[in-house]
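so my prof wants the structure for this chain in the C-alpha cells format not the other one, which i didnt know existed until like an hour ago. anyway here's the sequence
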Amino acid sequence: MSHTLGIIRYRSISQKHPRWSRIQVFGNARTNLQAQPVNEPTEGTAMRSFIPKARDGFQASAPVRSARGQELRPRDGGSVRPDRRPTRLRDNPWVRAVARWLSEMGVRPNHVSVFSTVVSAASAACLVLVPTSAPLTRTLLYVSAAAGIPVRGLCNLCDGLMAVEGGLRTRLGPLYNDFPDRISDTLLLAAAGYSLQLPWGRELGWAAALLATMTAYVRTLGGCAGAPQPYCGPMDKTGRMALLAFACVAASIESGLGLPERAMTAALWCMVIGCGVTIIRRLSRIVANLRTG
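here's what i got, hopefully its the right format
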C-alpha cells in the first residue's frame, strides 16, 4: 500500500459486554467509513452495562447505528455521536448515578421525558395561583414552583444519559426528547406571566414562551438544513430555566417581606430580549455553516 497504516489498538472496556468498546488510532491511520455489525444486547444487559467507564476515566457512549442495526464508524476511527446539547452537568457523578438507578428500576428515557412535563405543569400551576393567594401562600407557591424547575432539568439530563450512554434509545426517542421540552417551556413561561399582577403581564409571559419556542425551532431548522445544531445562548434552555428559578426565589422573598414584586417582571423582560439575541446568533451561525459547508 502507498501509505502507511497506523496501528489500531482495540481495547475492550468490558469483558462481559464487548459492545462497549473504543478504538484508539495512532499514526496516520486511514480507515473508510464502514458499517460493522454489532450484536444488540438484551434489555437487561443494557441496564447492567449502563455507562461503563474506561481505564482512563472517559465514559463510553453507545454506538450510533444505521437503520439496519449496524454500527457506523467515521474515517478517523472514532465514534459517531448524536448531536447533543453541550453541558458539563452530564458528567456530574450524582446525575449519572440517578440515571443509572432509574435504568436499573426499569424506567425508560421516554418515561422520564414525559415526567419532566408533569413536573413543569405542577410548577406552572403554582405560578398561576399566585395572584389570588394570600402573601404567605404566595411565598410558598413561588418556592414550590422554583423547586420543580431543577427537577425538570434533572429529568432532561437523565433521559439523554439513559438513551445514549445507557443504550436505551428508541425510534420515538427524538420526539420524546424535544416535544415535551416545548410544552414545558410554554407552560412555565406563560404561567410566569399570569403570576404578575400587571395589566400586560400575561402578554409578556406569552411573548417569552413564543420566543423560547422560536429558539428551539431555529436550532432544529439548522439541523434539518444540514448545519450543526447551534446551542448557543444567552437564552438557551438551561439559561431560561436558571433565570426563571432565580426569579421565583427572589419573588418569594419579595412576597415574604411585603416588597413590590418586580423580580419576575424583570426576569421575563430579560428572557424576551435574551431569546431575541439567541435567535439572531443561532441564525447567523447556521448561515455561516451552510455557506462554508
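also thought this was worth mentioning. The chain has two domains: 7-73, 88-292.
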